[in-house]
Design a protein that fits this description.
Helices cover 63% and strands 4% of the residues. The protein is mainly α. It has a 3-stranded antiparallel β-sheet. It has a two-stranded antiparallel ribbon with strand order 4-5.
Length: 396
């Protein structure tokens, strides 16, 4: 194991320890949001070997947020992906540590993924930016589903790249199975997020289908054959609890809580439309410009430089395309996100971290060539690396 790998592994362990401490000392190991309460309720039901229970005799006497009573059954409105994962933590008696554990793994995967397109130094910086992100930490110490979704997104992306772009020593069938299981599990956790995450890879799959030989296509067909039935379990679950595979339990709690545009979607007059979609996205991104790395109004300052640094690196387009794809996907949802940061875009956090690290390294290279260090008498101005490091420390 290289020294950089050792540092990245240590950073992952420190991330787990820090999140575990904050979960206990700040969030006190309890759910705070209605979403978290519903997830915990669903996880406890799954722990008992069920996914629904009978409606209580007096439903209003036993109200649970976002838990629906329908046709004599009581069930959570959320898909079962995250409650099923959380139920494992309940069974083991470590429920508060599930997301901190996933956070530590995610930092390691960010480093591994960044190393596919960046230098080892920049890859380590991307992992560090992730680990110190208030956006990342706020969600990773909660009981929300986003950290699990981020882990699945990272594992899927890394497996896809290992299979279709940079074949590794890992057997190819294993990378295909990993990618399929992770994307399928993401669809069972956050379906709209899965659509956004998959979009750049759908474009790459189309290129493989029309431009690559059969040796690549067969692995693509295997991926689709494995992913589709896993993702389809979401429809099976909806049919089991509502009687129809097309009836989303979200709409049983709030009839207007649907995806799309037009009357009856959302709370705005006339329903959801492109103007409200633009307003939501603009506000969510404005919030993220501070919450992303904790740099007030400056978290995106290096993103344009990262785009310049990686625009010729086509594999990097897949990695960095996840964030804008998520922004585009959530234009179809009637409400934005700003509590705990713009969390609907959380699964694209690694795209921003990798772009930022690439931008910082690009800037260092350019400054080192143009400004090796200046002396004025006895005064010596710091070199570009020292200057950029000081600026980052100040921002943090």
């Amino acid at each position: 194991m290289t020294r950089t790998n050792q540092i990245a592994l240590l950073l992952s362990l420190l991330t787990f320890a820090a999140c575990a401490w904050m979960t206990q000392r700040v969030y006190e190991n309890v759910p705070h949001l209605e979403d978290e309460i519903a997830f915990v309720w669903q996880a406890r039901v799954i722990t008992q070997g069920e996914y629904v229970i009978e409606t209580p005799y007096c439903p209003s006497c036993f109200l649970e947020p976002f838990v629906v009573d329908y046709q004599g059954l009581r069930f959570g409105k959320y898909p079962l992906g995250w409650p099923a994962a959380l139920s494992l933590g309940i069974r083991l008696g470590v429920r508060p540590l599930v997301n901190p554990f996933l956070a530590g793994l995610s930092v390691w995967l960010v480093y591994r993924l960044a190393s596919k397109v960046l230098s080892s130094r920049a890859s380590l910086l991307a992992a560090f930016l992730t680990a110190t992100s208030p956006f990342f930490l706020m969600n990773s110490i909660s009981l929300l589903s986003h950290t699990w979704s981020l882990f699945l997104t990272l594992a899927f992306t890394l497996a896809w790249i290992d299979c279709f772009i940079y074949p590794s020593r890992v057997p190819r069938w294993l990378t295909v199975v990993t990618a399929a299981v992770c994307l399928g599990a993401l669809a069972l956790t956050r379906p709209l997020t899965a659509v956004g995450v998959a979009l750049p890879f759908v474009l790459h799959a189309a290129w493989i289908l029309f431009k690559q030989d059969w040796s690549h296509k067969r692995w693509l067909f295997l991926f689709v054959a494995l992913t589709a039935p896993i993702a389809a379990l979401e429809l099976v679950w909806q049919a089991a609890v509502t009687g129809s595979p097309w009836l989303n339990p979200y709409s049983l709690w709030w009839p207007y809580d649907r995806i799309g545009f037009g009357p009856g979607v959302g709370l705005n007059p006339g329903g959801h439309n492109l103007f409200y979609a633009y307003v939501n996205a603009k506000f969510s991104l404005w919030v993220g410009n501070s919450d992303l790395f904790g740099w007030p109004y400056l978290s995106g300052i290096f993103l344009p430089l990262g785009c310049i640094a990686l625009y010729r690196h086509k594999p990097a387009w897949l990695i960095t395309g996840v964030l804008p794809a998520l922004v585009g996907a959530y234009l179809f949802y009637w409400i934005g996100s700003w509590l705990f940061g713009p969390r609907y875009y959380f699964e694209g956090l690694f795209s921003a971290a990798i772009l930022t690290a690439a931008g910082i390294e690009w800037l260092l290279v350019k400054l080192r060539k143009a400004w090796p260090g200046v002396r004025l008498g006895r005064l010596r101005f710091p070199s570009p690396p020292a200057t950029i490091t000081a600026a980052l420390v100040f921002l943090l």
